[in-house]
Amino acid sequence: MLFNRRDINTLPFTGGEEWQFGNERKVLEEQSRNQNPKSMRSGFFLNWIHFRLKLTLIKVLIREYKNPIDWFLGLQYLIKLRRRFLGNQRLKKMAYVDGKYYMGLYTPGWRSTVYEQFIASELNEFKKTNSPAYRFNHVFLAITKKCALQCEHCYEWDNLNKKDVLSEDTLHGIVHRIQQLGTAQIHFTGGEPMLKVDILLSLMKRSASGTNFWMNTSGLKLTAINARRLKQAGLTGVFISLDHFSAEEHNKFRNFKDAFYWAQEGARNALNSGLVVAYSICMRKEFVSEENIQRYMDLAKETGVHFVQFLEPKAVGHYKSTDVTLGTEQIRLLESVFLKMNFSDNFSSYPIITYHGYYQRRQGCFSAGKKGLYVDTDGDINPCTFCHKKSGNILDPKIDNLLATMTAAGCPTYTA
Ligand code: SF4
């Protein structure tokens, strides 16, 4: 049975009333329709941005090291680091959002202190820096087990809609702990984090500075008003799950009658509020074809989102014991689309694609306590959102030992 948006009102979830269908929403929706973000930067303008970005790198090097030889070697290190991930591909586009320039979803926007600290943290692996380094690039924090959807691939399936055990105070403690450990980004996830929108707002408002906040959502309840409140509370961007260009197919996959409506509505509202917006797609075997991906990317471009994240299905949660792993040809196609759309001039107005599988197959896993971490709805640490192996609680005083054990065990899927 598919739920519809009226049914959501009857579900026992918390949050403000503003997400429902009031007049203000209609006005903001109208404003949203009238704005075209046109936020991709390419060509000459991009070269100019890139030149200034390099000046920022030099500024960070001078600030972190006294010896000019380290400035030179540090710059070489950063260039090599980039090549390790992308080879010799030249940057062809960046997304401009609310005064900052974004080249990827997991790199903080340039023209921010978080970006500079992120670069300093990368340099710390070349040679110890003056500033304290981020321990992680990103940490996923699941704030609720509740969700109105019932997706085919849900990795939280075994916990879905069970009783939440983390109180608001405990969640504050967890955010505090993660920030103490040091991270450039915290990604709120669930369940559906928008069902706890008031807690989300409170977590961001009471957090320390120096971390960008993101949210992974189906788009549910991401009304114009909620998007604006989240932006004002400090949210940087949203990942909105959209798994098909066809409303019918997406709704069927998500087992929710208005999933497509909310994915699009949420994206428009987030764009209009100055948030970075990414569509995130689970690239199922039956979907992966050149024509389907092109139609999907056309829709993403038309909507105006800045990024599209390709995720490969994993046999966890609802997909446990299911043969969902992509074949060699499908992976080859995804990689070729990723390279073509990101690094050829013909697609400069399309959203930037983030494809973890591409990097992970070349560089191994960055998560599992190395550069990333997943804190689940019990406050337990896991290697990543798709790799559920509880390794102790984030609030444990011996967290450093727990992280060291997890990192030593590594990722079972991707080894460099
Ligand atoms: S995948 Fe996300 S949106 Fe879908 S049921 Fe699971 S928690 Fe909800």
Q: Would you give an account of this structure?
A:
With 416 residues, this protein is α/β, with parallel strands linked by helices. The chain has two domains: 40-124, no CATH class; 135-409, Aldolase class I (TIM Barrel, Alpha-Beta Barrel), CATH 3.20.20.70. Helices cover 42% and strands 14% of the residues. It is built from 14 helices and twelve strands. It has helices at residues 5-8, 23-34, 43-64, 68-86, 113-124, 168-181, 197-205, 224-233, 247-254, 259-272, 290-303, 328-343, 356-363, 399-409; strands at residues 40-41, 94-97, 100-102, 136-142, 183-189, 212-217, 235-241, 276-282, 307-311, 352-355, 372-375, 381-382. Strand 9 (307-311), helix 12 (328-343) and strand 10 form a beta-alpha-beta unit. Helix 3 packs across helix 4 and helix 7 packs parallel to helix 8. The radius of gyration is 21 Å and the shape is globular. Mean pLDDT is 90; it is low at 1-6, 9-24 and 30-37. Bound molecules: iron/sulfur cluster. Iron/sulfur cluster (SF4) is lined by residues 147, 149-151, 154, 156, 160, 190-192, 218.
